[in-house]
Amino acid sequence: MLKRRSFLVGLAGATIPTAGIFTSRAFAGPAAASSLPLTVVNNSGTYANSSVRLYIVGTDLATGQQAYVKPDGTLTPVALSDNGADGYTDYSIPLAASGDTRLTLPAMSGRIYVALGDKLKFKAVADGAGRPALQYPAGWVSFDPNYQVLHDFSEFTFNSSGMYCNTTAVDQFSVPLALRLTGAADQTTGTIRQGGRDAVFSAVAAAPGFDKLVVGNKLRVIAPGHGLDTGLFSSSYYDAYISQVWDTYRGTDLTVTVDSGTFTGRVGGDALTFNGPRSVSFSRPSTRDVLYCDGALAAPNDGTTGPVAAVLGAGFNRSVLASQHSQPVTDAGAFYSIDTTNHYAKAIHAATTDGKAYGFAFDDVAGFASYIQDTAPTGLTLTLTPW
What we know:
CATH class of the largest domain: Mainly Beta
Signal peptide: 1-28
Keywords: Hydrolase, Signal
Protein name: Glycoside hydrolase family 64 protein
Pfam families: Glyco_hydro_64 (PF16483)
CATH topology of the largest domain: Thaumatin
Number of domains: 2
Radius of gyration: 21 Å
Domain GH64: 33-386
Distance between the termini: 32 Å
Order of helices and strands: EEEEEEEEEEEEEEHEEHHEEEEHHEHEE
């Protein structure tokens, strides 16, 4: 099962105007020979089709080049000459005048952006190797040219192995989007319940320390990791809980079961060390490491350290790591039940019809992510759901 944390390189060369971590990772598999029908449904009830624009951007898996999709479905390499007189590209795809919009999705890894009201500004730039790349919108950066534009995105990889896609709130939550993938099965993910968008904004605003993550008049809510990097969220928020976890496992075993086997760990000194299929060790993480599931909790694609790191990251964000000595916890009723928890992720999960969301990078642990895949896809539908 390919999951979001397994998406290794797909947007290589993509840049964003911030020093923060670019959380999107796409699986770089072999390129598919065919295309996939993409239907876009505007059920927002707030914005007419004429006010909605799409952007399909990412990486051409056959060449490794940054690319975008034209309205006719052509996958086209990014060029520095694409920047117009204002210094930005215009890769926008308008919706049909009325009804559903039918497009063709080529083999690629990337994102489908939705912008409401105004266009997004993607800037073509040269990457470190001199190759054309794109600066993506960074809705958590106040000086980003897209900061005031209402927008959101979904992620996908479509290759010869199939379609792998998710709705993501790892960076931000703004526009309610749902994905339906048909093929060997008929699957839907990401659907926000009626009134769920308002509920997310209200819940995050009410959670102590999280209120500054709400941008504008319900423009978006940014993830606490990005809030930390921009001075809107405490860099010590999880510190006491991290100490509680470390103190707990100085004298108690922590067991983590993943596909490669069961690992048993104890804290010694300042490291949590596991024995099992092989020895793996983690230094004490920071609040930032917990929120980004990175740094001391980085998950290499090695089948052992990576999966254990993912379980630890999920346990910290869900605040079940200190109390539950066997991980991962599969009972969602136990998640987010103490004061020190990821209230941002909690709010987004509570707003979805199936309880699944990508509120942090390892939210797929135990199957709670808004992720679907199909090895024989026949169509993808992106729906702007009612607000």
